[in-house]
Design a protein that fits this description.
It is built from 3 helices and 4 strands; from the N terminus they run ββαααββ. The strands form 2 sheets. A two-stranded antiparallel ribbon has the order 1-2. Strands 3-4 form a two-stranded antiparallel sheet. A hairpin with a 6-residue loop joins strand 3 and strand 4. The chain is elongated. The protein starts with 5 loop residues before the first strand and ends with a strand.
Length: about 90
């Protein structure tokens, strides 16, 4: 289900519910993930240059991707790398 961007939630309150949540990515987020796949050590600044949007916009997209559990940063800002969690 992760491969299709689906999250599953089970609930029971008299009835049994299965809730599917789809997390859709913006085109920018998709580009960021593709670039990280090929270069996990890339910095936010380099991502900004490659995609052609401001570094602030990149930071916002990275934040959303981290909050949704799609990526995580391992190590420091300068010496670390990105991991894709799909």
């Amino acid at each position: 289900m992760k491969a299709y961007g689906l999250k599953v939630k089970f609930e029971s309150a008299g009835f049994f519910y299965v809730i599917f949540e789809r997390t859709l990515l913006s085109k920018t987020s998709e580009k960021i993930i593709e670039i990280i796949k090929t270069n996990p050590e890339i910095s936010a600044e380099k991502l900004s240059q490659e995609i052609g949007i401001s570094s602030r916009a990149i930071e916002m997209q990275l934040s959303k991707l981290k909050e949704s559990g799609r990526i995580k940063r391992v190590g420091s800002d300068k010496g670390g790398h990105w991991e894709i969690l799909e």
